[in-house]
Write a structure and sequence with these properties.
heterodimer, A: 5-stranded antiparallel β-sheet, 5-stranded parallel β-sheet, B: alpha+beta, 2 domains, ABC_transpr_LolD-like (chain A), ABC_transporter-like_CS (chain A), P-loop_NTPase (chain A), ATP binding (chain A)
Chain lengths: 208, 405
């Protein structure tokens, strides 16, 4: 469960954002639609606690993130939030499997290899676990990053333009996977995008 | 999954950069370590043999040459001096012992030295097998001579004239091996010792053979005409040092050379070279540090996104900083270990050459205390070179870095 109320953020006097209130309960999905320059990524970074809002409050799993120190924020992120980025990025020196297990390590949890292979099985890249991520296709990479986001059973999954670089087939597949996987662990799924193809797939929508 | 594993993966990812950094460190550390080893072992070898010898007398010439030939048996002798003059030294009250040496012949490159039993006493050489020579043409051989030539007790051999193995062979008279010394690390290991009279005998016979004009002398004059190459002198007290060398240099046909002074002179000559090499090695180590710095700095620029990603996944900045430090540290350790191995290989090669040319062997491959300091210095350089660029991790703006790409 994640809520954002009265969120404001300014990069400069000219570049200010006032965001509508956001609310996404456990097991629900929310689509945030907006054209470029409307502050989609800024909002996602605020929700992911990567940026501090100038005003307003973000509640994650029932606790306010307003007065946390940076190391506490890192802990909350590791435990409660799984993030999927527009362009999947990895630690290039590590294998696909190690990149997935990295979530566990950075979240101070035991590496769960069984879970990683099970997720790889479900997301369809089980053959690539020992390869370097750069050798996978875009669609495959995006599915790996979904697996990485799911490893710590987060309370919230945030996806930033997860489908904008994918063709229709892959787009369909990635969104389906995101929805089923987040539903299966009862997480809130918040997708930020300008991709009109997703309009019909989500019932809860917010426009920026 | 831990920091070490990620660091290793990162080093492997940039194989050439890592290799270059480690290679430079290896060279620098290897050079310094080799210099330390050589310096220590040469010093030990030289000091061990010099112990208890206060003065060397011999024919006039280079004092250093006299020391090198008479004590270390590595240079050519300066010439001959009459035994009578050497023996007159014994009358001086400050003189404790005089050990005359006669050399000039060799067997398979090992020097045959005619001397008195005092010589073996002085170097504390103990007999391993057989007994000490006690008649003319009997020899007792050093352990290395026995090993390299295969001579055993009872074997006979002909010496050859000169100190390398290509001299004329004195075919007529043969030496017989009576005993073998225990190895004791001194110059005795590489010598064939015999009575002074053996050397005289052999050369008299040689002269006969070559039909050179022969002097026949009564046995009572023998001592006066006999010659030796040099003599090692020990003083009863340091007062001898004040007067005797001057007396000898001014009043006799001989020269007196002080081993401690000559060896210090030799080392100060060598020292210039050693200092230069050491400075060069330090420069190489500095370049290695710069190489670690540059390669981490560059890879950090490339990996900025990775760092932001790991931070967004819950890593703390300190953890990532440690990870980068670990990369520098591992390069330092690899460079140090490889450098130590390299220096041992260098020492081994050097020792092989030295053994062939001078019969001296250098066989200490253990870690020197100085090398432990060297280890910490290497770690320090690795850490410093890694820490400087890695501090940037504390200034990294996660959100902007993630949004930019």
């Amino acid at each position: 469960m994640i809520t954002g109320t009265n969120l404001r953020f300014a990069y400069s006097a000219q570049k200010k954002f006032n965001f509508p209130d956001i609310k996404c309960k456990n097991g629900e999905t929310l689509l945030i639609l907006g054209q470029s320059g409307k502050g989609k990524t800024t909002l996602l970074h605020l929700l992911a606690l990567l940026l501090k809002p100038d005003s307003g409050e973000i509640m994650i799993a029932g606790t306010s993130a307003n007065n946390l120190s940076s190391s506490q924020l890192a802990q909350v992120r590791a435990k409660n939030i799984g993030i999927i980025y527009q362009r999947p990025h990895f630690v290039s020196s590590l294998s696909v499997l190690d990149n997935i297990l990295l979530s566990n390590y950075l979240g101070d949890k035991k590496p769960d290899k069984a879970k990683a292979t099970a997720l790889a099985e479900q997301l369809g890249f089980a053959d690539h676990l020992s390869k370097k991520p750069s050798r996978l296709s875009q669609g495959e990479q995006q599915r790996v990053s979904i697996a990485r986001a799911l490893m710590n059973n987060p309370n919230i999954i945030l996806a930033d333009e997860p489908t904008s670089n994918l063709d229709d087939n892959n787009c369909q597949r990635v969104i389906e996977l995101l929805k089923t996987q987040s539903a299966s662990i009862g997480a809130s799924l918040v997708v930020v995008t300008h991709d009109q193809r997703l309009k019909d797939v989500f019932s809860n929508q917010v426009f920026l | 999954m831990n920091l070490l594993k990620i660091s290793i993966a990162n080093l492997k990812e940039k194989k050439l950069n890592s290799f270059l950094s480690a290679l430079l460190l290896t060279l620098g550390i290897g050079m310094i370590s080799l210099l330390l080893l050589l310096n220590k072992q040469l010093d030990e070898q030289f000091r061990r043999n010099i112990k208890g010898i206060d003065l060397v007398v011999g024919a006039k010439g280079s004092p250093l040459q006299l020391i090198l030939s008479s004590i270390y048996q590595i240079d050519a002798p300066t010439g001959n001096v009459p035994l009578s003059e050497v023996n007159s030294l014994r009358k001086n009250p400050f003189v404790k012992t005089v050990i005359p040496l006669s050399m000039g012949d060799s067997y398979q490159g090992f020097r045959i030295v005619g001397t008195t039993p005092k010589y073996t006493e002085h170097f504390q050489a103990k007999i391993a097998q057989g007994h000490l020579y006690n008649a003319s043409m009997e020899v007792t051989i050093g352990s290395k001579v026995a090993r390299n030539t295969g001579l055993k007790i009872g074997d006979t051999f002909s010496s050859s004239h000169g100190l390398d193995s290509e001299g004329d062979v004195h075919g007529n008279r043969k030496y017989v091996v009576k005993g073998v010394f225990e190895p004791n690390g001194s110059v005795v290991d590489q010598l064939i010792l015999t009575r002074l009279s053996s050397i005289w005998d052999i050369h008299e016979h040689a002269e006969e053979n070559h039909e050179v004009e022969k002097h026949t002398l009564g046995p009572e004059h023998e001592d006066e005409d006999k010659q030796v190459t040099s003599a090692l002198v020990q003083f009863r007290n340091p007062m001898g040092l004040m007067t005797i060398p001057r007396q000898i240099n001014e009043n006799t046909s001989m020269q007196a050379a002080l081993p401690s002074i000559e060896i210090n002179r030799l080392f100060s000559l060598l020292g210039v070279g050693i200092e230069t090499l050491r400075a060069l090695a330090l420069v190489i180590i500095m370049i290695a540090g710069a190489s670690v710095f540059i390669s981490l700095y560059n890879s950090l620029k490339e990996r900025k996104y990775e760092m932001a990603l790991m931070l967004s996944m819950g890593a703390t900045r300190t953890k990532l900083f440690l990870m980068l430090l670990l990369e520098g540290l591992m390069l330092a350790i690899i460079g140090f270990v490889a450098g130590i191995v390299l220096s041992r290989i260098g020492l081994w090669l050097f020792s092989r050459a030295a053994e062939q040319d001078f019969h001296y062997s250098i066989r200490q491959f253990g870690i020197l205390p100085e090398e432990i300091y060297l280890f910490f210095a290497a770690l320090f350089i690795g850490l410093l070179a890694a820490a400087l660029p890695s501090l940037g991790i504390y200034k990294l703006n996660i959100s902007r870095t993630l949004a930019e790409e």
